[in-house]
Structures are given as structure tokens and as C-alpha cells.
Amino acid sequence: MAELYGSDAYSPAEIARRIEAVGEAKARMAWLPLALLGVLAGVFIGLGAMLFVLVKSDPTLGFAASAVLGGLVFAVGLFMVVVAGAELFTGNNLIVMAWADGRVSTAQVLRNWAIVCVANFVGAAGLALLVWASGHTSLNGGAIGHKVVQFAVAKQELPFVTALLRGVLCNVLVCMAVWMAMGGRSVTDKAVAVVLPVMAFVAAGFEHSIANMYLMPLAMLLQLDGLTGHAAITWGGMLGNLLSVIFGNVLGGAVLVAGVYHVIYKRQPPN
Q1: CB-side neighbour CA atoms (13 Å) of 204
Q2: Helix or strand or coil: residue 183?
Q3: What are phi and psi of 8, to 5 degrees?
Q4: For the purposes of burial, counting CB atoms within 10 Å of the CB of 227, is it exposed (0-12), middle (13-18) or buried (19 or more)?
């Protein structure tokens, strides 16, 4: 089947085998390197979110222009995860391919997700603390800080089903970005594969749980400075958003990407 996709990249069937092998290795990784790589991924995604807010805080850009440009700069986060090496909860939903083929247990999958998700939060929230302490949010006359709070309040007020569905759509695109990056043979290949799907989910306003782990704690810190919107960001509000978005991210990545590709390439192997 590889000849149907004539290029220097790995074929989709080869990507499926590589994703499964990588998923098995991730599921069996020792907890300390797994946690440290998870912290790095939280920082990387937080950096992407930081640049996204920088773009969105510019009032001279139109709606579509700021959405697309914001998505492009946000992609630096996933690009760093893919190339530098880090463990990202949303991307690790693809471990389900190895689980579906019996190569890892349910306990191993859940262990990976739990450690990585908590570590992602530590990295993203830790970056938020550093960004807040650095005074970065005061740039552009304080517009960056106001935009962070505005985004966080909007996320907190999302109905459960809306946040869940936006989480589903987000992680379909994130996992497709990771999937296509696995098809590349060079850093340039991986950059091209990552940028467009990430730009699409950010521009469309979908919900990424790890990005929210940066934005919402940062908004809570800004409230300590007296910067508030029409509602206060609370721990309960943040938790409600994260639970719905995480659930949606899992459905999008584990079911609609890993599950579908498992059916195509593993349950019915091509001749």
C-alpha cells in the first residue's frame, strides 16, 4: 500500500506501526523521566499559548488575521514537543493504538496519562508563575494581561458539553499533527506537519487542556494584582473546564484518531 503514497515520507501504514511502537515505549517508561518530560511539555505548550496571547492582544489585527497568526505562533509549542522531545498528555492519547493491539495494559495507559497530565500542569502552571513574576503581562499597556483574563473567564463560563466538544475537535487536530510528524524524516518535515493542524485548531477556538493549564493559573495570578474581568477565575471554575476539556481531548485523540487508524491499519493489515 506504500506505493499509493509516493514520497520520501513514511506511508500511513508505516506511521501506524511507528506510533504503536512509540506508544509501547512511552507506556513502559520509568516514572521520573516520564514526569520530567511531562513538565517540559507543559512549559513548551505554555510558551505557545504565551505567544498566542501576544498576537491576540494587538487591536490592529482583524479577527481572522489574529486568529490565524495566533495559531501559527502557538504551533511552536507542539513543534518543540515533537522535535526536542517531551511527553504531552494530548499527544499520548495515541498510546491507545498499542493498547488496542494488546502490547500494553489498561493500567499502563492510565499510569502514563495520569503522570503526564499532572506533570503537564506543573510545567504549564510553573511557566505561568514565571511569566507573571517577569512582568510580561504588562506589555502593550497591559493589554496582554487583560486578554489573558478575558480568555480565562470565557473558558470558565463554557457549558460542559461545549467545552467537551471543542476538546474533541482540538485533539483530533493535535493528534493528526503528531501522526503526520511521525511520517517525516527531517526536522523540516515535522515542522510542516505540525504547523497547519495546530493553526487550524487554535484559529477555530477549540480547547486544548494543557494550554488552559497555563492560561487559567496565569489569570488567577493576575487577579492578585487586581486585574479582573466581569467574573473571577476560581479553582472550581478551572477544574470544571479542565475536566470537560480533558475528557473531550481523550475522545478526540484516543477514539477518533488512534481508534480509527487502528481499525484501518492494524485490525485489517494491508496486503
Answers
A1: 19
A2: coil
A3: -80, -10
A4: middle
Tens digit of each residue's pLDDT (9 = 90 or more) over 2-47: 455 556 788 899 999 999 999 999 999 999 999 999 999 999 999 9
Pairs from 222-231 (Cβ < 8 Å, separation ≥ 24): 222/132, 222/137, 222/145, 222/148, 222/149, 223/149, 225/145, 227/142, 227/145, 227/146, 227/149, 228/149, 229/149, 229/150, 229/152, 229/153, 230/153, 231/153, 231/156, 231/157
Rounded to whole angstroms, the Cα distance separating 92 from 118 reads 13
Q: What is the dihedral of CA 178, 78, 114, 250, to 10 degrees?
A: -50
Helix (H) or strand (E) holding 79: helix 63-80
Q: Quote the DSSP letter at residue 44.
A: H
Answer whether 10's CB lies under 8 Å from 185's CB. yes
b (16+ CB within 10 A) / e for 167-195:
bbbbbbbbbbbbbbbbbbeeeebbbebbb
Residues 6 or more apart whose Cβ sits within 8 Å of residue 144 = 53, 54, 57, 136, 137, 138
pTM score: 0.93
Angle at 235 between CA 200 and CA 233, to 5 degrees: 65
Rounded mean pLDDT of 82-106?
96
**pLDDT (tens digit per residue) in 148-199:** 999 999 999 999 999 999 999 999 999 999 999 999 989 999 999 999 999 9
Helix, coil or strand: residue 77: helix
Compute the distance between CA of residue 6 and CA of residue 96 in angstroms, rounded to an integer. Answer: 28
